[in-house]
Amino acid sequence: MAIVKTIISGTAVVHIDDSCCAGVSKEEMERRWAEVDRVIWQINQNHARRMAEAEAAKQALQTPAD
């Protein structure tokens, strides 16, 4: 098994190995890679949302109540 593609984006690292490529057309591989890109985008969006929520909670704790 050999890695044929590595995608690094934000907090996600995805390695695609040659077992997913055997007997698959170029068009199908491009479709699969587009799906991987979509999933990575969702992971990064979720991470950014969690970080923003954590920062907002931190700020709320530091702000004195009126």
Features:
two-stranded antiparallel ribbon, alpha+beta, rod-shaped, 66 residues
Notes on the protein architecture:
By secondary structure, this protein is α+β, with helices and mostly antiparallel strands. The protein has one domain (3-62). It has one helix at 26-62; strands at residues 3-9, 12-17. Strands 1-2 form a two-stranded antiparallel sheet. It is rod-shaped, with a radius of gyration of 19 Å. The mean pLDDT is 85.
H-E string: EEH
Q: What's the arrangement of strands in the largest beta sheet?
A: 1-2
- Give the CA-based shape: rod-shaped
Number of strands: 2
Question: Structural class of the secondary structure composition?
Answer: alpha+beta
Percent helix = 55-70%
Give the topology.
Layout: E1 3-9, E2 12-17, H1 26-62
Antiparallel strand pairs: 1-2
Short description:
The protein is α+β, with helices and mostly antiparallel strands.
